[in-house]
């Protein structure tokens, strides 16, 4: 609305003798250059970093680069109606995203605008997209497990609430599917999930949304989408907005699983905007602050102390490598920021090992103490046995004869590998994992013919499901009582024959 019309409407709302005039300072400027999702403007003397501005007839933007005589603005809308000389108006407030329970089950963009065809969410609160991470004094130890439903992770590379874990690998190795399985495994009604899609194809986003709607049960969540055809500014904002949405649930006492898919694309968008705004390029043409941007983002994932509500945000950050190069700039940055990584090996994926997690190159730096005791005891020797099998299997490919002990070690390793394979969208419960691990550690699968192993593993899972309530109800530091262990073992022997 033009200023004159706004003033007339304001004065017309009450008699003149009742009008209490108050000064209102607004920062005005003019566009110098605009195009490719960014603009530069002059005259905005009082604008601040991350302040929301309005360009032309209502296009939203965010001030990011502040120089002495001009301001760099990242556009949050189309630029086809803007031109040099158009007016820019500051708002005096930073960019915010609506938050609240009204977002549960919805698909929104980083500004809270619905993308699912539904009404605008009735949120009563909005949080800044960029917030400080909680101080160390407000945090608690990472000691509560995150159940992912993937045996290879829960048994060998366990995760904890408040952890920042990197999921890294080449294109088309199952990174999104792994993160999706972890979300589908959440069954606690106190858990919320936030899925952040950054620059992904519409077909990929549609598949994720449909899978979450059809199969996610027991907990609710939000999908934040910075679409591939959206302005670069919205793609850049997506992970920050998703973090603010997750932090609202965390501050309400919930445990939140936050997925960034993916930060390699986000880094590319950050580079694009930096070059357009004429920031000095650094290594691989990325701006020098790209490490700071991702470190500040991921540091917001943590677990709060009980006196602060006890909520948590666990971040699964997806990153893409090229030709398995883990030493590239962005992968090494993210590896150094996060608390561990799950590396998906292209060779394993092409051989049909799904999920294609390379156990040797994957690590969880804080997850060991978060593992439930019942899983920790059963899987204590699993990683070593699997590593020995992989080493021995290489030698057997040359056709050399092996003794009986080596043959049994290889046969046992093949059963472990079969147990670690899982179909997409089929996360296992804790009881199923316990039953499969008990069958492995007791050697119940070693003498079963190769063509019957998969069927036997399904029978072991069925035995576990029949005892789901008893095992799921175990405390974090509790092992299976001897009588229940004997009962479960007898049931497995009977089922596996």
Write the layout of secondary structure elements.
Elements (H helix, E strand, L loop, with lengths): L2 H9 L16 E8 L2 E5 L8 E5 L3 E8 L4 E5 L11 E8 L1 E4 L7 E2 L16 E4 L16 E2 L4 H6 L2 E2 L3 E7 L4 H10 L6 E8 L3 H14 L4 E7 L5 H20 L3 E7 L1 H14 L13 H9 L13 E10 L7 H9 L2 E5 L1 H5 L12 E2 L8 H6 L3 H15 L7 H17 L9 H12 L11 H14 L1 H5 L9 H15 L1
Helix pairs in contact: 5-6, 7-8, 11-12, 13-14, 14-16
Apparent shape: elongated
Judged by helices, strands and strand pairing, the structural class is alpha/beta
Strand content: 15-25%
Tell me the strand order in the biggest sheet: 8-14-13-15-16-12-17-18
Distance between the termini: 79 Å
The total of helices stands at: 16
Number of extended strands = 18
Share of helical residues:
25-40%
Give a written overview of the molecule.
By secondary structure, this protein is of the alpha/beta class. The chain has helices at residues 3-11, 151-156, 175-184, 202-215, 232-251, 263-276, 290-298, 329-337, 346-350, 373-378, 382-396, 404-420, 430-441, 453-466, 468-472, 482-496, and strands at 28-35, 38-42, 51-55, 59-66, 71-75, 87-94, 96-99, 107-108, 125-128, 145-146, 159-160, 164-170, 191-198, 220-226, 255-261, 312-321, 340-344, 363-364. The strands form 4 sheets. Strands 8-14-13-15-16-12-17-18 form an 8-stranded mixed sheet, with helices on both faces. Strands 1-2-5-4-3-6 form a 6-stranded antiparallel barrel. A two-stranded antiparallel ribbon has the order 7-9. Helix 5 packs across helix 6, helix 13 crosses helix 14 (453-466) and helix 14 (453-466) runs antiparallel to helix 16. The model has no long low-confidence stretch (mean pLDDT 90).
């Amino acid at each position: 609305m033009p200023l004159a019309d706004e003033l007339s409407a304001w004065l017309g709302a009450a008699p003149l003798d009742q009008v209490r005039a108050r000064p209102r300072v607004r920062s005005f400027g003019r566009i110098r250059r605009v195009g490719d999702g960014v603009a530069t403007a002059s005259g905005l003397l009082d604008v601040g970093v991350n302040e929301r501005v309005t360009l032309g007839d209502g296009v939203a933007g965010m001030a990011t680069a502040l120089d002495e005589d001009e301001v760099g603005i990242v556009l949050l809308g189309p630029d086809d109606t803007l031109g040099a000389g158009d007016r820019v108006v500051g708002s005096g407030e930073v960019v915010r995203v609506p938050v609240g329970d009204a977002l549960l089950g919805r698909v929104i963009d980083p500004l809270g605008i619905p993308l699912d065809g539904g009404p605008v969410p009735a949120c009563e609160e909005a949080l800044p997209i960029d917030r400080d991470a909680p101080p160390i004094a407000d945090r608690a130890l990472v000691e509560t497990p995150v159940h992912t439903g993937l045996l290879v992770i829960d048994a060998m590379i366990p995760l904890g609430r408040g952890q920042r874990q990197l999921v890294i690998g080449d294109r088309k190795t199952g990174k999104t599917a792994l993160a999706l399985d972890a979300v589908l495994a959440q069954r606690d009604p106190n858990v919320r999930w936030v899925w952040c899609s950054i620059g992904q194809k519409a077909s990929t986003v549609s598949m994720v949304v449909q899978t979450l709607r059809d199969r996610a049960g027991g907990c609710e969540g939000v999908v934040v989408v910075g679409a591939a055809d959206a302005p670069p500014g919205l793609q850049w904002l997506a992970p920050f907005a998703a973090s603010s949405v997750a932090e609202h649930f965390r501050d309400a006492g919930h445990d939140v699983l936050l997925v960034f898919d993916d930060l390699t694309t986000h880094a590319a968008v950050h580079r694009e905007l930096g070059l357009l705004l004429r920031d000095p390029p650094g290594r691989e043409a990325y701006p020098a602050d790209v490490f700071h941007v991702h470190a500040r983002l991921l540091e917001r994932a943590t677990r709060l102390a009980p006196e602060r509500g006890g909520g948590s945000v666990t971040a699964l950050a997806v990153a893409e490598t090229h030709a398995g190069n883990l030493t590239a700039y962005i992968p090494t940055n993210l590896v150094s920021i996060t608390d561990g990584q799950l590396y998906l090996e292209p060779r394993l994926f092409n051989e049909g090992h799904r999920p294609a997690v390379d156990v040797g190159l994957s690590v969880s730096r804080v997850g060991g103490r978060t593992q439930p005791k019942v899983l920790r005891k059963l899987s204590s020797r699993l990683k070593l046995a699997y590593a020995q099998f992989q080493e021995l299997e290489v030698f057997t490919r040359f056709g050399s004869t092996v003794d009986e002990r080596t043959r049994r070690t290889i046969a046992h390793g093949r059963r472990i590998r079969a147990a670690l394979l899982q179909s997409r969208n089929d996360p296992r419960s804790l009881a199923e994992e316990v039953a499969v691990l008990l069958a492995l550690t007791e050697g119940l699968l070693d003498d079963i013919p190769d063509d019957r192993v998969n069927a036997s593993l399904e029978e072991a899972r069925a035995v576990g499901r029949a005892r789901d309530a008893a095992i799921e109800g175990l405390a974090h530091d509790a092992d299976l009582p001897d009588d229940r262990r004997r009962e479960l073992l007898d049931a497995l022997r009977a089922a596996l024959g």
